[in-house]
Structure formats: structure tokens, C-alpha cells
Design goal:
Distance between the termini: 135 Å
Order of helices and strands: HHEEEEEEEEEEEEEEHEEHE
Strand order of the largest sheet: 15-16-14-13-12-17
CATH architecture of the largest domain: 2-Layer Sandwich
CATH superfamily of the largest domain: YehR-like
CATH class of the largest domain: Alpha Beta
Number of helices: 4
Radius of gyration: 37 Å
Helix content: 25-40%
CATH topology of the largest domain: YehR-like fold
Low-confidence stretches: 13-28, 68-80
Number of domains: 3
Mean pLDDT: 85
Structural class: alpha+beta
Number of strands: 17
Length: about 325
Amino acid sequence: MQGQEFNELNERRVSNEAEVIGELRKDKIGKPILVVEIAVLFLVVLIGLPIVSSMLDNENSMLSKLLNKNTGGTPIPVTTQASEYANGGTLQVLKSTTKMKFQNIIMSDFSLSNSNLTCKISSYNGEINLDEMDAYLEIYSSSNTLLGALKLTGSYDFQEKEVVLQNINLHFNNEYSYSGKIVLMKEDDYPAIELSTDESGIGSFKCTKDNQTIEYIFKNQYLIQLKDREKIVAASLGTDEYMNAKRSLETKAANLGNNFATVEEVSDGLLYQASIDLETPGYKIPDTVSDSNYYALDTQAKKIQYALLGKGYDCR
């Protein structure tokens, strides 16, 4: 019996010693792992903190925009990021790969030939009517000399439309590069013009494009009257186009009033004529007449001539 108790006691000692040894080994292995984990965490913080700080300082970063959106800042556009566009308010080389944005106007895919510039125009957000804005694309030479401007016209949404802009005073050479920027002109931005007048200060100029001629009459360089003559040649249009043009001119004449405009059929088509005395008491061009070439009383001559030249008219 004593021998059996002695053997059991030895077995318990061996068992206890094994457990103590196992715990010592666990401590020795665990400490290096903890050191590694702390080192990795330190490196993540050390590297990540400057990146996060930089993103917060950059108002165009996604993180900054998300935080601004949650705190009442400028919302993020759902569709396209502004960083995809060059700044249309500064000079950009006009080529097929250029895509630039100024405020709500997007212009891209430029091609220049003779007096024409072909490009695509769309709106960054919602709809825009450029006929209601004094928006121009200024054209510069490779030496940054202003050569002229093209008037931006028409209504646009997010769908791109290809347009042809023209200024007969511009002559593009394929061997040279040209730059451009979008501007919104103010009254003082328009260059002064020389206008021949009589002794009472009355002067005028005519602007012609295709089959239309508009005469603007001024007193001391402020608009007082305009005359419009447009010929629609039936043979140059299809039946539907001709009927649409006829309805459009008749509607415009009716809105202006019979005393100011008429439409008549002639041997080869239609003749539209208007003579509008803007000084007629109580009269102004109705809002229903959506013709951006019809300016209000007292509009300055320099503004009208600059716009008509920018639309491809020849003004003399």
C-alpha cells in the first residue's frame, strides 16, 4: 500500500510540473505577438492619419464632401464629379480631347475649320438657356492674344448636342493651336465701337446671315428701333420644314402685332418683315417672342454688334 501511495504522489508531481511548464511557454510566445500587434497598429495610425487629414483639408475629396453633406455643406452631384472637367473659366487648348466646365456649362470635343468651331455642349445640372445669358467662348492664339468670341446660344440639358459656332472675323489655321475660355460678359466688358451718326446722334448698322438682314437703329448708341427682313425659299426646304417655318414666322408676327410685322407668300416662298419702333409709348417686345436678336429699348450698340458677330452675322 505504501508503495502504491508513493507512485500516485509521484504521478501528481509530474502532472503539476507539466502544467507549470506549459504556462511558462504560453507567456513566452504571447508577448512577441502582442508587441507585433502594437507595432502594426502604430504604423497604421502613423501612415493613415496624414492621409485622412489631407482628405479633410481637400474640399474636393469624397470624405470632405460626405462630411459637408452631413453638416449642411454643398451637396455632392449625383452624376459626375467636377474633377473630370478642365476649368472652362481659364484658357484651355481647344482640341477633340478637351472637356471643360464653367458654372453650369459643359463644352467638349472641339474641332476648328475656317470660321467655324464645332463642339458639343451640355448642362452640368438641370436645363440651361444660353439665349438668356451673355455667355461667350473667347478664342485666343497660341501667344494668348484674343482673336474674337463666339456667342453661345440654345437650350441644353445633360444630353450632349453638337453645335457649329461661327464668327466671320475668325480664320482658323489647322497648323496652329488655339485656346479658349467661357466668359459671362457684363455691360462694361464689351469693346467700344465706332458708329457713324447724323447731327442728331442717329446711327445704324445692318447684320446679315443667310437670307436674313436685321437693321438696328440707335440714338447716341442706344437702340431705339429695329427692322428685320427674312426670306424663306420653298425650294431649299422639305414640305414639313417649310410648313414649320411658315407657322413659326406667322406666330412671331402675330405676337409682335400687325402694326409691326407681316408674313406674305411670294413667288418662291415666304417673306417676313418687321419694323419695330421701340420708343412707341407703352410698347415692349412681348415675352412670347423668343428671338434673341430682338433687343429691348436702350440696349447699347456695342453689345448688339458683339453678339451678332459672335453668331456668325456680317455687321456693317
